[in-house]
Amino acid sequence: MVQSEATTKKRTFKERLKTIGPSAIIAASFIGPGTITTATQAGASFGYALLWALVFSIITTMVLQIMAARLGIIARKSLGTAIRDQFEHPVLKYTVTGFVMIAIFIGSAAYMSGDINGTSLGISTLTGWSINIIGPIVGVIVLLLGLSGSYKLIEKLMIGLVIVMSIVFITTMFVAQPDLGGIFSGIFAPSIPAGSIITIVALVGTTVVPYNLFIHSSSVQERWNDASHLKDSRWDIFISIGMGGFISAAILITSGTLMRGIEVETVADLALQLEPLLGSWAEPFLAVGIFSAGFSSMTAAALGAAITVSSMMKWEKGMNDWRYKAVFSTVILIGILSFVLNIEPLEVLLFAQALNGILLPGIALILLIIMNNKKLLGNYRNSVKMNVLGTIIVIICFALGIYSLVTAISDFMG
User: Fold this and answer.
1) Residue 178: which of 51, 32, 286 has the closest Cα?
2) Domain spans of the chain?
3) Which of 71, 42, 382 has its CA nearest to residue 230?
4) How far apart are CA 412 and CA 347, in angstroms?
5) Spatial CB neighbours of 332, under 8 Å, sequence gap ≥ 6
6) 188 or 268: which leads in pLDDT
7) What fold is seen in the domain 16-348?
8) pLDDT (tens digit per residue) in 321-354
9) ∠ at Cα 223 (219, 227), nearest 5°?
10) For residue 105, what is the DSSP state?
11) Which of 81, 149, 272, 278 could form a disulfide with 320 if both were Cys (CB 3.0 to 4.6 A apart)?
12) How far apart are CA 9 and CA 26, in angstroms?
């Protein structure tokens, strides 16, 4: 379905909405229980002051995903394959690919139990059923979804979940009647309140997710196959990830308006603050949002691990390859098992945190190098502007990564 450049130049906003697809998976991926909790804690602890960090995270995500999407559309390669092909020296090639695969697999598996818990909490609130029963059932549903091998089904599901989350969290923000002046100050007058650096790192870490770059570079190939589609891809990114950022900001703004100074232990605390405004609808309304966030994050985590490993190993059949399905299944099954056994793998989580602290800036740097490969991308390699933005992002990510690594080691030693 190759389109000419002329057909993509003049489009109404309604027509541009039809381009939404691959980036909806990315948005649905980073709005998980972790993001909801972190944004809620950020608002409760610091009001609107950290909105700038969230805006930075969204801009960073957009810049990196634009590069990843262009790589997939122009070079017809996923990021995993491109990384493997970029390095010719065998030692360097297998060291980099091995580390990336292990780090993403461990990270996905380590947080799967939390995603299952978040999803189950949403259903339990609505139905009254025990989360111990719901958790494994939800895990099996996601497992069957992945085993279906249907990219279009997953894409449509993710779009639907983003729409549901938009309705829930953006509505709650408007109902809360936030201070517009405070919001603009939080965005355009950056500050780092005392004790906020860990929360800033967490906001970036839950939004800029390394495996989303692998998912995006692979998924765009399912939708687009020509340079004339780059504009469609960018609109998909701006609309979908922009909406994902708006949802995260809405959660932070709502908690900053209603929960300032209140200690947040769980996301359910936000429902208590909404009761004066939404009455008996507060808890089920928020439960729908929590369920959507957990389910989408679960699916994307397993998808990210499977796509990363399969692309780096150059398994050609993609989602229909039994080895791809084996990786997807393993991540889900680890999550189900840890949930059923009520395991809190603190050391594994700290290890995953340390790995991700190194992984994000490393992946961002490698992506920047690949996007300047003239042999691979020709005239579609990075412009000077994209290189400047990319370099700034890599430097900041390295600083945050070092801090995250030091924090993880300190927690482990403590």
Assistant:
1) 51
2) 16-348
3) 71
4) 7
5) 112, 139, 142, 143, 146, 298, 302
6) 188
7) Amino acid/polyamine transporter I (1.20.1740)
8) 889 999 999 999 988 888 888 765 455 555 555 5
9) 105
10) H
11) 149
12) 25
